[in-house]
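Thread: Newbie trying to understand structure tokens

Hi all, I'm a second-year student working on a class project, and my supervisor (Dr. K.) asked me to get a predicted structure for one chain before our next meeting. I've only ever worked with sequences, so writing a 3D structure as a token string is new to me. If someone could post the tokens and maybe explain what I'm looking at, I'd be very grateful. Here's the chain:
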Amino acid sequence: QVQLVESGGGLVQAGDSLKLSCVASGRTFSMYGMAMGWFRQAPGKEREFVGSIGWSGSITYYADIVKGRFTISRDNAKNTVYLQMDSLKPDDTAVYYCAARNGGARRDRSEYNFWGQGTQVTVSS
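---
Reply by user tm_fold:
Sure, no problem. This is what the structure looks like when written as tokens:
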């Protein structure tokens, strides 16, 4: 089993930056065996892909809507994955979820086995 806990959400203004963290734990968990992803869900909308990162941190994927503004990274020694969000827009407002899977980084929600509870990000105009 894998447990994921997100933190770092909050209320910011358009153009501001915010950094989310996700700490992973579990008896059989290994950062070197897991790809990590970030997803988000706004009220009334489907949970959508934001970014993902492979076990070594060398491979990353981003949704087109956030590419160039968001950066995903990981610190395996701390069992933590990060999402640095810059130039935030009101449309970025959502609950942001951390996810993990055994294998390579993927874009689809259905590919991930483990999920955190989410952290709220609200961006005002």
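A couple of things are worth pointing out once you decode it. The radius of gyration is 13 Å. The mean pLDDT is 95. Feel free to ask follow-ups in this thread.
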